[in-house]
Amino acid sequence: MKYLEVAVEVESGFTETVADLFWEFNTGGVSIEDPLLLWQYINAQMWDAYEFPEKVLQAERATVRAYFPLTADIHTLLGQINEKLKALAIPFNLYFQEIDDEAWANSWKKYFKPIAVGEFLIKPTWEKLPSGEENKKVIEIDPGMAFGTGTHDTTALVLEALPKYIAPGKVVADVGTGSGILAIASALLGAEHVYAVDIDPVAVKVARENVILNRLSGKVSVIENDLLHGFATQVNVIIANIIAAVIKELAPDAFKKLTPGGIFIGSGIILEREQEVLDKLLESGFTFVERQNRGGWSLLVVRKE
Ligand SMILES: C[S@@+](CC[C@H](N)C(=O)[O-])C[C@H]1O[C@@H](n2cnc3c(N)ncnc32)[C@H](O)[C@@H]1O
Predict the structure, then answer these.
(1) Beta carbon of 241 within 6 Å of any ligand 1 atom
(2) What are the binding positions for S-adenosyl-L-methionine in this chain (predicted)?
(3) Up-side HSE of residue 69: CA atoms within 13 Å toward CB?
(4) Residue 53 CB coordination number (10 Å)
């Protein structure tokens, strides 16, 4: 299948804003080339400068790329993206080109390096385990065209929170699993079984491959489904890193599908909508446990008493 790659050049501080705008348009994937961020990792000696093209390291501005299926209404979509970018009132340049999906899958690899988040070390399959990180729980990930390399604040917030809520024996549902990263992390923390659910068949395929890569096929089942509709099993923990509106939609059903004492972890909530999502969770019967904020994103944890 052919895709349209839409590339937007902006100042470093605006990459997440542009990425969020692309997610609003339901892109299948976003990649960010940000020279400032690369230099932060290089200066912290986590990554090596020689691994990145000179052109990217010396670039004055960051580039955010997103991918959309090349369908008949692609020109309308491009027009809408252009209008939304103008409304942000920030300087930008917009480029686009047709690509095949293989090129897209590979575009992630250039900038995805091993990264430590909480107790975990997320490692692309093609990289070696860095020395000094041997005591971390290693998650091998090849994100392909699915969301979830661990570098996004919404994923990192969940990875940091998980050890508090997942103990050996727990049964977990990871709704909106993307690359499967949070389901794999839950299994590594000792969950008895994890149901990893995604509505996107591409994410389901990628998550299944990552589960096999981490030798967790017996512990993680990847299911193509819309949220938890028709899902009959009661679970102890539900994780959902999706977006505010979808978490609100999921809240009443999540309450029903948790056992007493069960925990719901919601992420991907923009800060402006945190209270609205929390209100919906409380209205669904949950009690508040904790909130964490980073980079304009909120993570909410609630319990079914
Ligand atoms: C932001 S990504 C999160 C990926 C990964 N869990 C992480 O934390 O990095 C959200 C995922 O939710 C999935 N999704 C969106 N709406 C959904 C729905 N109604 N049911 C199931 N999955 C959904 C998307 O396909 C996408 O893979």
Answers:
(1) yes
(2) 155, 176, 198, 241
(3) 7
(4) 10
- The reply to whether ligand 1 has any atom less than 6 angstroms from the CB of 33 is no
Map residue 88 onto helix, strand or coil. coil
pLDDT tens for each residue of 73-122: 888 999 999 999 999 999 999 999 888 876 665 665 666 778 889 999 99
**Tokens representing 120?**
């975990």
- Give the SS3 label for residue 297: strand
Ligand 1 centroid – CA 75 distance (Å):
26
Indicate if 72 and 181 belong to the same structural domain. no
Angle at the Cα of 12 from the Cα atoms of 53 and 74, rounded to 5 degrees: 85
User: What is the rounded radius of gyration, in angstroms, for the C-alpha atoms of the chain?
Assistant: 19
The pTM is what? 0.75
Distance CA 213, CA 25 (A): 31
- Residue-range definition of the domain harbouring residue 253: 145-303
Q: Is residue 154 located within the same domain as residue 55?
A: no
- What is the rounded CA–CA span in Å between residue 191 and residue 282? 26
Q: Which atom of ligand 1 is nearest to the CA of 227?
A: 20
> Is the confidence metric ipTM above 0.85 for this complex?
yes
* Domain CATH for 224: 3.40.50.150
3-state class (DSSP) for residue 122: strand
- The count of domains in the chain is 2
CA distances from 59 to 12, 20, 25 (A): 10, 22, 27
The H or E element containing residue 153 is helix 153-165
